[in-house]
Design a protein that fits this description.
Largest sheet: 7 strands, mixed
Helix content: 40-55%
Order of helices and strands: HHHHEEHEHEHEHHEHE
Number of strands: 7
Strand content: 5-15%
Structural class: alpha/beta
Mean pLDDT: 93
Length: 286
């Protein structure tokens, strides 16, 4: 990524979060007053995304938006639970326009938050925050790391990360862009940390594990991403992943199935939000 380059993918995620605040019924799955401040809802990018999903119809636009809302909510629910295990550091891998640190609940003041991203993406985000007059919280550390040059361990060390403390990692909307080897490296790093550390991450499953309509939507998403120079490299199967992570020595591995996600977050909603099969959540505790 060249200096000052704009992350269209990152902006697309923030647009989905913004649409949730504007279009979906209360109560919100995620209350996020920050994303709408980072997005120009009168701009061409927002309008084009809105037009695309309007043409796709209700059966696509709301469930697709739910992918982003659910993964955020589930991650933050797991983070809250992790405090009981002694976790005091939260590392957001591929943070881009993630807004947790800027709308954090009171309990999060006990946690040091690290936003890890490519230096160019992080510089762009900081410009967005400054333009929106969003305050940087005292418990946030920006960790600009180009993983093609610097290891995650070295990059976090430079950011004063405490390797002796149980830590929580999130990896959302990222695994499909990584090689299998890079994903394994992240798992290995988390596993090297003290007991109680964990990682919550999203996977995109192969086409045969999702209905035809979802497969078509995600093929389009992968194609558009490839055209932007960000090809999808890896899709993962939950059952195989549970086995691998267990064999690696993680003490607890949890798969949030689409049915479980619907039961937990979308039951009796007054809108069309619902979990899809395409993007699924996993949790692995050291």
């Amino acid at each position: 990524m060249e200096k000052k380059s704009r992350s269209v993918t990152a902006e697309g995620v923030a647009i989905q979060q913004t649409m949730h605040q504007i279009l979906d019924a209360a109560p919100k799955i995620v209350d996020d007053p920050i994303s709408p401040r980072l997005i120009d809802t009168a701009g061409e990018t927002y309008k084009s995304v809105a037009a695309y999903f309007e043409s796709a119809g209700r059966s696509v636009r709301s469930p697709f938006r739910a992918v982003f809302i659910m993964r955020t909510r589930y991650t933050e629910d797991c983070l809250a639970e992790s405090l009981a295990l002694g976790v005091r550091q939260y590392v957001i891998l591929g943070a881009v326009l993630d807004t947790f640190a800027y709308r954090q609940p009171g309990w999060a003041s006990a946690i040091q938050v690290f936003e890890v991203d490519h230096p160019a993406s992080q510089e762009w985000k900081r410009e967005c925050l400054q333009a929106a007059k969003v305050k940087i919280p005292a418990n946030l550390t920006f960790a600009p790391i180009d993983l093609e040059i610097t290891s995650l361990r070295d990059g976090l060390s430079a950011a004063d990360f405490d390797f002796r403390a149980p830590s929580f990692f999130s990896l959302l909307g990222v695994t499909q862009y990584l090689t299998a080897e890079a994903i394994e490296s992240i798992f290995g790093f988390v596993q090297s940390l003290p007991g109680g550390s964990e990682i919550v991450f999203e996977i995109i499953v192969p086409d045969d594990l999702m209905p035809a309509e979802e497969a078509s939507v995600f093929r389009d998403a992968a194609s558009m991403s490839a055209e932007r120079g960000e090809p999808w490299l890896t899709r993962l199967r939950p059952i195989e992943l549970i086995s691998k992570l267990t064999e690696r020595g993680f003490s607890r591995v949890t798969h949030l199935s689409p049915q479980a996600a619907n039961d937990r977050y979308f039951r009796e909603r007054r809108d069309d939000l619902a979990a899809w099969s395409a993007a699924q959540m996993m949790r692995a505790i050291v």
